[in-house]
Write a structure and sequence with these properties.
The structure is a single chain. This protein has a single domain (about 5-15, about 30-90, about 125-200), classed as Phosphoglycerate mutase-like (Rossmann fold, 3-Layer(aba) Sandwich). The protein has helices at about 35-50, 60-70, 100-105, 110-120, 130-140, 155, 165-170, and strands spanning about 5-10, 55-60, 80-85, 145-150, 185-190, 190-200. It has a six-stranded mixed beta sheet with strand order 3-2-4-1-5-6. Helix 1 runs parallel beside helix 2. The protein is an alpha/beta fold.
């Protein structure tokens, strides 16, 4: 049976004008007002496209759980949400809670670029890439129908690195990042996995 996976990054956790910080698994922030608007916009867009989901997975943090709740609120028959630890945001180590200028001062622009383009973790970050890749591979092998996943930027990128065909397709992207309130789609077809779209906002 075919498979389509829609991968969503949670909505904003910082207000406009507020200095964004590197927030990972140790900091359980809620969505701010604009983040709630992003979640509702995603739900309305998916419903407007006639999409229905057979399975729903989310990381256990509030920002991901709230986002998926608002998306599924627009579905006529929403599946229950399964909390999946392998989808949780990474741990930024000594950079947790730091503004970007402080992070750059510690590790440099090149290290951040390597993270965004190659998912090569900067020194001190705890990523657990093998566990994440195993989680995505298990999903590709066992899931079917249309699966909705809400996760974080740090976890989502490993979907693109969990399969050689996806890795090659993702090499054409300027970055592996998903912006807040953005989504990507990956389809499993007879020829393998196909990257349908990435980093799209409603």
């Amino acid at each position: 049976m075919g498979l389509i996976v829609t991968i969503v990054r949670h909505g904003n956790t910082f207000d406009v004008g507020e200095a964004a910080r590197r927030i990972g698994a140790r900091t359980d922030l809620p969505l701010v007002a604009s983040g709630l608007e992003q979640a509702r916009a995603l739900g309305a867009a998916f419903a407007g496209q006639g999409l229905s989901f057979d399975q729903a997975l989310a990381a256990p943090l509030r920002r991901t759980q709230t986002t998926i709740e608002h998306i599924l609120a627009c579905q006529q028959q929403a599946p229950p949400v399964t909390s999946a630890g392998w989808l949780t945001e990474i741990d930024h180590g000594p950079d947790e809670g730091q503004v970007e200028s402080c992070v750059v001062a510690r590790i440099g622009h090149d290290a951040l670029a390597a993270w965004d383009v190659e998912a090569r973790a900067p020194n001190g970050w705890i990523v657990d890439a093998d566990r994440r890749i195993e989680g995505w591979r298990a999903l590709w092998e066992t899931a079917h129908g249309h699966v909705l996943i809400v996760t974080s930027n740090g976890a989502a990128r490993f979907a693109l690195l969990s399969d050689e065909a996806l890795r090659q397709q993702a090499s054409a992207l300027p970055s592996l990042k998903l912006r807040t309130g953005a989504y990507g789609k990956i389809a499993r077809e007879q020829g393998g996995l196909r990257l349908v779209e990435w980093d799209r906002r409603p």
